[in-house]
Structure formats: C-alpha cells, structure tokens
Amino acid sequence: MADQQILIVGCGDIGSRTAVGLVARGYQVFGARRSVAALPDGVQALRLDVSDLNSWFDLTLQPDYIVYSVAAGGFTEASYQAAYADGVRNMLTWLTEQRIQPKRIFFVSSTSVYGQNEGETVDENTPTQPQGFAGRIMLEAEEALRNSVFSHTVLRFSGIYGPGRDLLIRQVKQGRIAPEVPVMYSNRIHSEDCAGVINHLLVMDHAEEAIDSLYLATDKGSVPIYEVMRWMADELEVTPTEIVEAPTKRRASKCCLNQRLLATGYIFQYPTYREGYAPALAAIKAQS
Fold first, then answer.
1. pLDDT for 115-149, tens place per residue?
2. In DSSP terms, which residues pair with 113 in a beta bridge?
3. Rounded to two decimals, what is the model's pTM?
C-alpha cells in the first residue's frame, strides 16, 4: 500500500493515533500541521497553516486520501472559524486549483452540531440545530464539503476522552460530581477508537467497500453523566462533597446512536466508559 498517499491535516492527538494505524498497514502517511515536531515514527512531516491559503499551495503531494483532523487554537469563535470553516474552504480551493482528486476526504466533526439538550435521541438523520458557535461553524465546514465535488465522509465524534483528556477524573478526585437530578445524558468515545474508526472506514473505502458520507461516532454507552462520575468515585473510593451543574463545561443532554457505524463491522476497543476509564483509574489507585 506504499503507493497510497494519506495526508493527515492537523496531525495532533487523534491525527497521530490515526497515522500510527495507517503506517502499520503500509500506507505512506504525511502529517501536516503548523509545528512538525514530535510526529509519530514513519510519518513524513509537512508544515501547514490551514487558515492560510498560500500555505496549502506550498504542499506538493497529490494525496489519495485526506484526513482532516484539526484542533482549534482555542474555544473562541475566531479560532473555530480559522480551523474549520476557513481551513476546509482553503483545502477545497487548493484541491480544485491544483486539480487534485482524492479518493475520499474524511472530516472529523463533532456532535456539537446537534442542539438537542432535553435527553432526545439523535442519529445521522436528526436535524442539526447547533446552539453555539462551535456547532454552527463545524456545520458550516460540513456543508462546504457537501456542496463540493469531492467524495467525503463526515465523522461526528461525541465527547472524546483518553490520555490527556481527564477533566471528569480530576473533578471526581476533588470530590465534585454531577447532579443525579435533572438527568444529563452524556456521550463519549475514546481517542483510540476515534483513530480506529477513521482507519476502519479508510481501509473499507480503499477496498472499494461502500461507506456512507456521514457517521455519528460514539461508543455504546449513552448514559447519565452522574452515573459515570458516581462509578469513578466508587472506584477511587472518593466521597463526593460538591455538585457540579455542568461538569463538561458545555451543558448538554442527548442520547447519540451509533447503529450506522456498528453496521460497518467496527468493533470498539473501549465499548463503554468502564473499559475506557479503567486503566487511568487503576494507575491513580496504584500511585496512592
């Protein structure tokens, strides 16, 4: 597969995990980001600022696949606009003017495009009603792809957790916990499964197996966030002393369905929060 060039735009946490899997499968992987330090072994580094159109035209490769997995520089409207809406439009301009036709573009999006927050069930067919700038701008980037001539797949990841993403664990260690009532449903996916999903679908497409243009990517456990934090507290033998009304910073409550993803045959490495958080909790207990 060395003749297949994969360009990972924004080769940070998820992009790097994705790259490791693709390199192991024999693909030729290029990682493009503003800082090219500390990319995984086997990944060829490219310098790129997605918000700068000229930066795109400094790239000389013609990738067979593109994985757009950019992290905004901060949780501000300007940062999101630059990373997602502007970045995707610049990519599409570069591809069009350079007459590059990748087999498929994979765009890492977010369930923030859903504005439902009363415990509703959502899937790929649910109308998007973003309530904040993050969801609105992410949806703008999705629509730019939908309106383009390029084959693409949008991946709406739910709350990503894993190494370096331990907000809930830190809060529980401090004795803080979500309220039991009103119920706030939460959805999550481990960072290793984010990479796993991208690898799985890219390999399927390369094998000319049919894949969809949109997937809601979340694990098998849409549960009240109180349940998650209560379980953590029990595991760490911590007695909660304070209620946190919005422990994930952005108050939301919906139940995300992943049937379309499961129908592709993807098998989760961490199917629920229990498997995903267990190693981190075990490490904390071993240190105490």
1. 998 899 999 999 998 989 999 999 999 999 999 99
2. none
3. 0.96
